Amino acid sequence: MSEIIIILAAFFAAVIDTSLGMCYGTILTPSLIIAGYSPTIVVPAVLLSQLVVDITGGATHTKVKNFTKRDIKVALLVAIPATTLAGIGAFSNLNLSKIIIKSYIGVLVAILGFLTLYGIRLRKSPKGLVLISSIAGFNKGFMGGGFGPVVVSGQIIFNHDVRPSVAIGDIAEIPVCIVGLLVFAIFAELSFSAIFLIVCIPAIVGSLIGPHLTVRISQKNYAEKIIGVVMLILGVITLMKNFLG
User: Fold this and answer.
1) What confidence tier does 96 reach under pLDDT thresholds 50, 70, 90?
2) Rounded CA gap, 235 and 29, in Å?
3) 134 backbone φψ class: left, alpha, beta (φ>0; ψ -120 to 50)
4) Rg (the chain; Cα; Å)
5) What is the tens place of the pLDDT at every residue in 170-218?
6) Exposed, middle or buried by CB within 10 Å (0-12, 13-18, 19+), for 43?
7) Roughly what angle, to the nearest 10 degrees, separates helices 148-157 and 223-244?
8) Which residues contact 130 (CB under 8 A, 6 or more apart)?
């Protein structure tokens, strides 16, 4: 029964992640922990399946033209600082208070959600995009989450279109996941587990569907509102869990 729940969680997490550019780890990590898996298995399982989702979803985003050649420069502006700061975030995990970091992520995500929901836009700025990407990479390295919401909403606020913003959120996360897996392999015991396949297979299927939903919701102008609402909810939940337990 728990395997069926995990399969469904991985599938829906991949659909949501590749359609909105966020929430994969937010959905799958607690599902695996509730099913009884230890964090030493959960972390690499989420990282590996996230990598598979990002690669498959990125290819599908490209196929349906959510991501094109003109988006490569922006993808690099996101991926390079995010990957660099992910390593710093992982190191900081040993030295900074998790309560402080979780509070900051909750506040940041809620604010970005509010700005996205109410259509507040800033002038396109490479420096602003690098800053947003650096924060997102640090979040990912520090606690495994907070990448997609910050990167996707940050691009939208800096006046980038929704479809490439979602696609870039997935594609730019590929090197971040690779670095995370390498760090885990070097500094922790990493061994194969059947849960890797149980999670990855439905995640691949879901990531073939999500990008098509991005096209649909962006055509009806729903995407920004949905992303804004999801961001606000994630920010509030993060703060409540942090202070209320």
Assistant:
1) low
2) 17
3) alpha
4) 17
5) 999 999 888 878 877 777 666 677 888 999 999 999 999 999 999 988 8
6) buried
7) 140
8) 77, 81
Structure tokens at 184: 């885990």
- Token digits of residue 170: 């997935």
Tokens (6 digits) for 123? 């002038």
pTM of the model: 0.83
Cα–Cα distance for residue pair 236/120, rounded to 1 Å: 20
Distance CA 173, CA 21 (A): 10
Q: Which long-range contacts (CB under 8 A, 24 or more apart) does 9-13 make?
A: 10/49, 10/198, 10/199, 10/200, 10/202, 10/203, 10/206, 11/202, 11/203, 11/205, 11/206, 12/206, 13/203, 13/206
69 in the Ramachandran plot: left (φ > 0), alpha (ψ -120 to 50) or beta?
Answer: alpha
Distance CA 78, CA 32 (A): 29
- Report which of 65, 87, 68 is spatially closest to residue 175, judged by C-alpha positions: 87
- Of all residues in the chain, what percent are helix, strand and coil, respectively (each to 5)? 80, 0, 20
